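Predict the assembly for these four chains.
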Amino acid sequence: MKQYDLETLRSSVLFQDVPLVLLDQLITHGSKRRLARGETLFVQGDKALCLYVVLDGWVKLSRLKQSGEDIVVAVYTKGESFGEAAALMGGIYPVTVEAAEDSIVYQVSAKNISEAIRTNPDLAMAMLAATFRHNHELVLEIEDIKGHTAAQRLATFLVALAPVTHGPCSFALPYDKGLIAARLGMKPESLSRSFANLRANGVTVQRGNVTVNDLDTLKALINAERGPKQKPIPHT
Amino acid sequence: MKQYDLETLRSSVLFQDVPLVLLDQLITHGSKRRLARGETLFVQGDKALCLYVVLDGWVKLSRLKQSGEDIVVAVYTKGESFGEAAALMGGIYPVTVEAAEDSIVYQVSAKNISEAIRTNPDLAMAMLAATFRHNHELVLEIEDIKGHTAAQRLATFLVALAPVTHGPCSFALPYDKGLIAARLGMKPESLSRSFANLRANGVTVQRGNVTVNDLDTLKALINAERGPKQKPIPHT
DNA sequence: CGGCTTGTTGATCCCCGTCAATGCCGGTGG
DNA sequence: CCACCGGCATTGACGGGGATCAACAAGCCG
């Protein structure tokens, strides 16, 4: 286990509140796992034996609907975790997980964790905290879907992705536009049109690279009432 | 504390996995609280000191958006709980809670619970289980919003509300249609039209009383591909 | 009775999904 | 080296679902 990965684990959402000594002891039972882009980690319905922390890359969580299509529940990257619920309760995974890019995940047996929880209340509180955070994210997501247009949701996504919080910036999109669209609950065509709308607000895209003239303009857009229709500006 | 309320607490989502002796000891520190319809329990931003279990009635959880309107996050009834996250983490409530009907809630100080968690791992596991369940509900809700029409969401709501699982039935709507609409993420006008659509599938409404000819017909509707437009049938 | 709230209905608009055509890019094989 | 091809992104045309605005009916309570 490299020092760098240790740092990632220590600052992960799941483990950030766990005392260091306890954590170091916990993760001796885990193992690193590499995933090639497109590789499946587990599928919906599998018996849940492990929980995971993303060390690098991006992984996609999706649910298979009866109608056949699958909908994207979340896309996680470095420091985020998944599978805690199913694994600790000894159930089955409610989602399918696959790598959206070449990725590395850290895998911990649920049995070890749940034993540790029983003997260490701090760990229990830390796990509760992590779950509550997940919970809060979901509530925000519901709020987002119910009250925003596609362009506003895209703006939210970009703001979260930006390396700074104010002024101009430029960064790369982490994965395919198709997956971004699914993550935002829309079709690729709508994503394209949303980008076109944002062009009028100082957002340009060139081959997976985004440039934002002013992040505050974007933030204002998110909270704005559905503004008057704006003309999309043609590509390039 | 009446025997009846004790039963409700013991079978509540939050406490159902907690050993009886421990639970009985826990709730000696709590208190019952009556809410008149429309009364506010706490508002978004309040310091979170207690968590709550609904003993009777219906309470509404909503979030105030910057744009002024508030959106309904959830509506809870007997046996459901809220405020665990904020209270245990010592934060502030992220939502406003008010009674949608005359209601009774059970109020437990977070300090007592978190002390109990530290000394009793079973309680920790039970709380984790409750939170995970809550989590799963939220995921289902997201799935519901993303993939269903207004009429399908209404059908889901009615099926969950029905006192039986098959065949015909009749029951009362628990609260205002306006709130039902908000709960389902739509406007009152749309709810009205959704009811009109369901009339063709054996659903009639008369002053807050719903009659369903066949619940299985409704369930089939929920999973159906977006069927061909059906003519709404006029009211009465 | 007359105001007030709540629910229904109609007309219209806008966002987004669908279907289809085109353009851009990377990879493959002659 | 370049022609060809398949996948992804963009753009246009069209339709449907729900929001909005407005009118109206039905209870409720003074």
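Residues 121-147 of chain A form the longest helix (27 residues). Chain A touches chain B at residues 63, 65-67, 71, 73, 84-85, 88-89, 94, 114, 117-119, 121, 124-125, 127-129, 131-132, 134-136, 138-139, 141-143, 145-147, 185, 223-225 (CB under 8 Å).
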